[in-house]
Amino acid sequence: MNSNLSTPVFVRRLAAAVVLPGIVTSMLVLAPLATAETGPASGVCNGVVNQLAHRGTVQENLLKASARKNAELIAKLQAERAALQSTETTLKSEISALDASITALDAQVLQLDGDIQTAESTLATLKAEQSATSDAIGAAQTALADLTAEKADVQSLLIPLQEELGLAEAAVSRLNQQAVELSDQIEDKKSQIATAEGEKVNLEATAKAAADSLAAKNTQIGDAQNELAFLVEVAESADSDVAAAARAVLDAEAALAALEAEGAAAQGALDAQQAEIVEAKAALTVLQGTAAAAAGAVVTQGEEIALAQGELEALEAAAGDASKALSLHDAEIVTAQGALDVLEAAALAAAQALTAHTKNITAVSAEILDLEQRIEAKDDEITAKKAAIGIAQTELATLEAKKVVLEGQIATLSAQIKDFNGNGNDPARKALVDQRAAKTAELAAVNTQITDKNTLISGLQGDLGTLQTQVNSLNAQLLAKQQQSSTLQQEAAPLQTAVTEANSAVAAKEAEISTLQGQLPTLQSNVANADTAVSDKQGELSDLQDQLPRLETAAAEADQAVVAQEQLVADLEAELPGLVDGVAEAKAVIAEQKGVLQGLRGELLTANAALTAANADVDSKKEDISNLEAQLPALEGAVADANSAVAVKTADIVALNSQLDGLVADLSVLNARIATAEAEVLSLQGRVAPLLTQLNQLNEDISATEAQLQTLQTQLTSLDTQVTDAQGVLRNLEAKKGNNKAAIAVQKATVTALQTQLGSVQNQIKALDGQIALGGCVA
Description:
Structural class: mainly alpha
Shape: flat
Helix content: over 70%
Radius of gyration: 77 Å
Largest sheet: none
Order of helices and strands: HHHHH
Number of helices: 5
């Protein structure tokens, strides 16, 4: 008994040792507790606990097999639980995402409600403005019709008066024209009378002048005959004076010839003596010149010697200065060459820096060009995307409008079907049901297309955002590169200036060296020329000093010859005064006689002129008398003709005055008729003026009303467009709101399904947890 009882106790302990770690492990692994209900326990379970509970005892090998199978089942259940837990997490994530989507759609619905309210308010305002504008157009059209009718009435009154006024004004114009013509005729007659009277006065003056001319001509003839007798006496006296003057001139000329012969002899002696003196003085002058030249040559020679000595000293100093200048010039060339080397090195460094900077600028410019091309390409892509979005939005609007139409048609069909009150066998009702089914299918297809179109638009807008981001990034890069390029270009300016200044300095220094080197041959030539001049001046000074004694001897001999010639000139001049006095006396007598002869010749010329003038006066006077006598017959005939013309012109003036009186009488009658016609015209103008003023005012009112009507019609057209646009906006907003509500309902239904699925998964997990806790058997 004891031995039999000990074995089952050991087996139960071993089973407990195997099962308890499994239970503990399952409790550690399964965190949440299952909430699903447990199923009923039926049949025999392979689990160790249920085997013990069912049979009470078990064999050891069965216990091991049961434990191994229990462990495999628990591992399988744990794997299923892990899969279900992953599904639970996924479902929770989907539910959270759907809740967030529903929240966003609710917010969009609220926003759309506000937008719809705003659109409805705007539409109501526009319709009110449209109605008011239509009323204003009707009022303006009524006012325009009234004004047009009033204008027609005024024109019906005005046109006959204007025609009558035109006839009256034409009559006045004709009468005025006749009056002008009569006035012109009167003025013409007056002008003719004035002309005739003027001509009569001229003719009378002509007749009087002819008579006066005849009397004056007779008086001139008498006076001329008296003057002729006096002139004949004057001519005879002048002839006697000419004869006496001619005899006196002959006597004076004979006396002058004798005196001139005596004066010529005295002058010959004087001329001979003076010629001899002149010759002596000339010889003296030559000798004095020779002596002065000799003395001057001596002085000049001394001066030339002194000058040559001074020039020699100057040339020696110049030769020293030229040599010093040549040395200094060589030193300047060496200094300038050193400075040139430094400047060339600086210019090379500046050029290298500028070249490197230019390469940087070129590289940045290439990058800028590449960025601009890339931006342009992205802009083209953006334009294409925007165009695609525009097309898609247009197509979406068309689909949404079609959807609204279909929904309206379906609602109408549903209402018509409802009117049959459950009579489902009616063929008309079946037709309506079929139509509604077709419209519903078409609506589903349209909704699918709208969803696809929205998806396409969202994708395109996402692509557009990506492209815009890329463009913004490229623009930022381009701006940075442009700023870098600007900075490099700003830095290039001073480098370019430095290169230019360095090159200029090098060129200036090279020019300076070239100038110095160009001056070098001149300085060397100056040194050689100075040395040559010193040598030449030394030879010249030696020659001058050798010539000085000979010149001093020639000067002494010339002084002795001058003294001898001066004595000869003095002797000749002592004899000259006597000869000069004789010549002077002869010249005085001859001059006196010439004066007498000149006076007598003048008197002879005067007498001849007086005789010629007297003879000419006599001849002229005779000719004047003959001409005056020949003019007498013509003057007598002119007097007779002038008196006859005066009589004829007087008769013409009488006739013209008679014609003038007739024209004046006609003009008086015509003026009376003109006054009557003008009074009639003034009366008609007084009646026409107010009607014209009224017509002008009506035309202005009609123009203003037409302009107002045009403005109101333009406003109405604009308001119609705005109302249509506002209605389109409102329909779009209502369609979007309907879409969002449908989407919310779909999302909520999806959440409900997911939550149901989540509950099922959680129940499965709970069942697995209970099964694992029971070692793989259902509780």
